[in-house]
Amino acid sequence: MSAPPTAPAAPFTQEDYRAALGQFTTGVTIVTARAADGRLLGLTANSFNSVSLAPPLVLWSLSSQSSSMPGFQEAAHYAINVLAADQRLLAERFSRKGIDRFEGVAWRAGLTGAPLIDGAVAVFECRNRSQHAEGDHIIFVGEVAHCSRRVGAAPLVYHGGRFFTDLPI
Fold first, then answer.
1. Each residue of 20-31: pLDDT tens digit?
2. CA angle 78–79–85, rounded 5-degree value
3. CATH code for the domain of 154
4. Beta pairing, strands 57-63 & 137-149
5. Domain contains 116
6. Distance between CA atoms of residues 80 and 44, nearest Å
7. Where is the Flavin reductase like domain positioned along the sequence (predicted)?
8. Model-level pTM?
9. 11 domain-assigned
């Protein structure tokens, strides 16, 4: 099968594109893993999606330029922690650079060994099944080995560059 023709240059700026994407309300996650050298990895991501029920697959994506990229590419397993409404400060913490993101954070090792953030509304422990380079990101597809949820917990959501504890109206 041949590749589709290259699209013409976009008639909008990268800022326009980012602003338009910001109109899509998403949940907020912290993706965590244990690097091959034992280091804890974690970052805030809202690029999380289900892919398949059978087998159970999910995806998330990470900038190719991320300093965490080598650790996530090599990790056998990772966890996607869907944050609760009261975990906004954690989302902000795990999006900062140059700090120990896990310092003072309550977590435990999951069944796969990946760190699980206490209080998350849902957790997906995944085998690092495949990775796909697309544009300036790597798409990670994970096979869910275990999942859990907190019934009745309100999620943290992201819209228009801001966190909300309820959907914006």
1. 888 888 999 999
2. 150
3. 2.30.110.10
4. antiparallel
5. yes
6. 10
7. 21-165
8. 0.89
9. no
Q: Is residue 165 part of a domain?
A: no
Q: What is the pLDDT of residue 169?
A: 45
Give residues with Cβ within 8 angstroms of 5, minimum separation 6.
Answer: none
Distance, in Å, from the CA atom of 25 to the CA atom of 109, rounded to the nearest integer, reads 30
User: Of 121, 117, 114, 113, which Cα lies nearest the Cα of 102?
Assistant: 117
Residue 133 has pLDDT above 80, yes or no: yes
pLDDT tens digits, 45-101: 999 999 999 999 999 999 999 999 999 999 999 999 999 999 999 999 999 999 999
135: in domain: yes
Q: Which domain holds residue 109?
A: 26-160
Over the chain, what is the mean pLDDT? 92
Query: Quick one: DSSP state of residue 99?
Result: S
**Residues 143, 139: Cα–Cα separation, whole Å:** 13
Q: How far apart are CA 44 and CA 121, in angstroms?
A: 15
Burial of 27 (0-12, 13-18, 19+ CB in 10 A): middle
Quick check: helix, strand or coil at residue 36? Answer: coil
